[in-house]
Design goal:
This protein is mostly helical. Helices cover 73% and strands 4% of the residues. The longest helix is centred in the middle third of the chain and has 30 residues.
């Protein structure tokens, strides 16, 4: 499915953020942990329609699996309680710990899945542009942009340095110890390269009158459509229904 033609991908960034917040709030409004865990497959379905299913699934599994399993085991064994379900030596799983582990990990899965989906279907430049449109200062949006681009740029620069080492005959693949030895020499050029790119970016921004106290124009246009208004109204209505249902329940 083409990412550019999907309705979800063409929504305005603030509308996509409302979808993210709505999923997070719904996970806390709906009692229990079943719906919270269900947010992950819901996000997978939305990612499929947005054309980002593979990227979202890989990132969600890598980011969540180890963290969720670790927290679940930790809380199951060490959360205080009296109703022991299983024990061995000094270790025991208590009903209270199991329930709290399910509650905590389900909320983590729901919130993390929603935000991973948001950043997979939203371009950084679209997000920054939408923030500028609602009145955020350009310096603030630049900090957000730099923060979001920091890790991808560092990763790209690391690959370039590692490839350069390979051409010089340095062994960069194999056992963990070999890879660690190959990674250590990359730290100096990585840090120096990051500093140099920061200086170049500062010069580029100043050449474009970034710090000038004047109203700036942009050739990049991003506008809301009728679909954005429809989705926003639908989200508000659904959240209102959930809140009323939860209060009555």
């Amino acid at each position: 499915m083409n990412n550019e033609r999907s309705l979800l991908s063409r929504l305005y960034p603030t509308t996509k953020f409302m979808v993210t917040i709505a999923l997070c709030l719904a996970a806390f409004i709906v009692p229990g942990y079943g719906f919270s865990y269900a947010v992950l497959p819901i996000c997978m379905l939305l990612a499929y329609f947005a054309g980002s299913f593979k990227e979202f699934s890989n990132l969600a599994i890598k980011a969540l699996l180890m963290i969720v399993v670790f927290i679940f085991i930790l809380q199951s064994f060490f959360y205080p309680g009296n109703d022991i379900l299983w024990s061995w030596s000094i270790f025991s799983i208590k009903r209270e710990g199991l329930e709290f582990a399910l509650f905590l990990t389900s909320k983590i899965v729901a919130v993390a899945s929603a935000f991973i989906l948001f950043f997979r279907i939203t371009k950084v430049k679209d997000l920054v542009h939408s923030l500028e449109q609602i009145g955020l200062p350009s310096k603030v949006t630049y900090v957000i942009l730099s923060t979001l681009q920091l890790i991808p740029e560092m990763k790209k620069l690391t690959h370039v340095i590692m490839d350069a080492q390979k051409t010089r005959g340095v062994e960069t693949e194999g056992k963990l110890l070999v890879r660690m030895k190959a990674f250590l020499p990359t730290l100096s050029p990585l840090i120096l390269g990051s500093v140099a790119s920061t200086e170049e970016r500062v010069l580029t921004l100043e050449s474009r009158a970034f710090s000038a106290n004047v109203k700036k124009s942009s050739i990049y246009k991003l506008e809301k459509t009728k679909h954005d208004r429809l989705v926003q109204i639908l989200l508000v209505v659904l959240l209102a229904i959930l809140i009323v249902w939860r209060v009555v329940l």
